[in-house]
Design goal:
- Strands 9-8-6-5-12 form a 5-stranded antiparallel β-sheet, with no helix packed on it. A 4-stranded antiparallel β-sheet has the order 3-2-11-10. The protein has a 3-stranded mixed β-sheet with strand order 4-1-7, with no helix packed on it.
- The mean pLDDT is 83.
- The longest helix has 20 residues, at 232-251.
- The radius of gyration is 23 Å and the shape is globular.
- It has 6 helices and 14 strands.
- The protein has 2 domains: 6-169, no CATH class; 175-252, no CATH class.
- It has helices at 22-29, 137-140, 144-147, 175-178, 199-206, 232-251, and strands at residues 6-9, 11-14, 17-18, 42-45, 50-53, 68-77, 95-97, 99-106, 123-127, 129-135, 158-164, 167-169, 186-188, 215-217.
- It is an alpha+beta fold.
- It comes from Rotaria sordida.
- This is UvrD-like helicase C-terminal domain-containing protein.
């Protein structure tokens, strides 16, 4: 696309002070999102790329955790000096942003008032979010590296506050994240991890589109994946729902 990629860098604080030690800073930024309250340390962005919200912004407007949109623009303050992060995952021409203000994202399903001309395009400004999480310095920087940070590593857990945009790239998503969504076209991987399978593991991804022509299964899979039997708990739940349905029909048969 010949566009300059930008990467938003999260702002991390320990006891109200920015994390200055470069080794500790790098280790914290590389923590997986499920350990940082789903606020990414590195957020790569390119104009017109799909993104997904990681928290509820305004559920009444359909801006909630998992809502997908199209990234349009990042508004930020220029750093006094060029910031470089040596990471092989990003191209050499990447622009790293430390002082993010907000991102402009278009949400097609957002329930904004069309009578307001400034909101008719359904572009919403997403400001940075603040979350607090715990981490163990010993695990991130074992041995002498931890001692050099001047942080008391004897403490079992350290509290860290992170400021970052509640967004993640949404070129792909897990089955769990796709629940309840109707999508235009999808590519599905049906090679399941080892272990017992639930019916929902197969039904959910295959039912995200309205037409079979909009579904592509990326590579061969075991046909047994489609023959998963419901668990005992699921069978009992179906029986309970059936009883409720029968009882409801009897109670309201004259109305119906």
């Amino acid at each position: 696309m010949r566009l300059t990629p930008i990467v938003c860098i999260a702002q991390d604080y320990i006891q109200g002070k920015p994390v200055d030690d470069l080794r500790l800073r790098k280790a914290i930024l590389e923590l997986p999102d499920n350990k940082t309250e789903h606020l990414p340390g590195y957020l790569p962005l390119v104009s017109e790329m799909p993104v997904s919200l990681t928290e509820n912004i305004a559920t009444e407007l359909r801006l909630s955790n998992g809502t997908r949109g199209i990234f349009r623009q990042l508004v930020y303050n220029e750093s006094p000096k060029d910031v470089r992060y040596h990471d092989q995952n990003f191209p050499l021409n990447t622009k790293f942003i430390k002082q993010t203000k907000y991102a402009l994202v278009k949400f097609h399903g957002c329930k904004l008032d069309e009578k307001l001309p400034q909101l008719s395009s359904k572009i919403v400004s997403i400001a940075f979010s603040e979350q607090t999480f715990l981490f163990a310095a010993k695990e991130l920087l074992p041995g002498n590296a931890a001692k050099a940070t001047k942080i008391n590593t004897k403490t079992t857990k350290l509290t860290l506050k992170r400021k970052a945009l509640p967004l993640i790239p949404a070129y792909g998503m897990t089955i769990h994240k796709s629940r309840g969504q109707t999508l235009g076209k999808i590519i599905v991987d049906l090679v399941m991890p080892p272990g017992p399978l639930e019916v929902a593991s197969v039904y959910v991804p295959l039912s995200r589109v309205k037409r079979l022509n909009d579904l592509l299964i990326t590579h061969p899979f075991e046909f047994g994946t489609l023959q998963v039997k419901p668990s005992t708990a699921q069978i009992e739940e179906l029986k309970t729902l059936d009883k409720i349905a029968q009882s409801t029909r009897k109670r309201f048969q004259f109305i119906l």
